[in-house]
Design a protein that fits this description.
Layout: H1 3-9, H2 17-42, H3 47-58, E1 64-65, H4 66-72, H5 80-89, E2 93-97, E3 105-109, H6 111-134, H7 137-152
Antiparallel strand pairs: 1-3, 2-3
């Protein structure tokens, strides 16, 4: 297949085409994730915190319980409580007890959290634009379908 991967990994061959594809997926993921990580770090949040805030923006103003946040996360981190604690300390989210069930807390994004996401939007869109400028629309659609096929089986 491609020579770029072989050059990047300083490897002459792979045991199989599947191994080569896997290495390409890992490298592409790390490359794009780093771009998002860099944008997050400029706003003093992590990628996982960005993910939680992005999820809560979609539920604004109602919010979600912790279990719903976990089920919607891209990387289902085991330390979601710690992520939420850190976001709460920065006043980017707030936790409130549910009126129906006092054992349940609902996490909501604050206006400050929404403002940070708004400020980050152009940098996150730049990552999307990078893909848009690197691949055709058809290639992006194929990539998305292939990825879905891999993780949904």
């Amino acid at each position: 297949m491609g020579d770029k991967l072989k050059q990047r990994l300083k490897q002459k061959e792979f045991r199989s085409v599947e191994e080569e594809a896997l290495m390409n997926l890992f490298l592409a993921n790390n490359f794009l994730k780093k771009k998002v990580d860099d944008a997050c770090s400029r706003y003093r949040i992590t990628n996982a915190q960005y993910n939680v805030m992005r999820i809560l923006r979609g539920a604004y103003p109602e919010g979600y319980p912790r279990c719903e946040i976990i089920s919607r996360m891209i990387d289902q981190a085991p330390d979601v409580t710690r992520i939420i604690d850190n976001l709460e300390k920065q006043d980017l989210i707030v936790r409130l007890n549910s009126a129906e069930d006092r054992r349940l807390s609902i996490t909501k994004i604050t206006q400050k959290g929404l403002d940070i996401l708004q400020k980050m939007e152009s940098e996150i869109n730049a990552v999307n634009d990078y893909m848009k400028n690197s691949l055709t629309k058809s290639e992006v659609e194929q990539l998305s379908l292939i990825c879905e096929k891999l993780y949904s089986n």
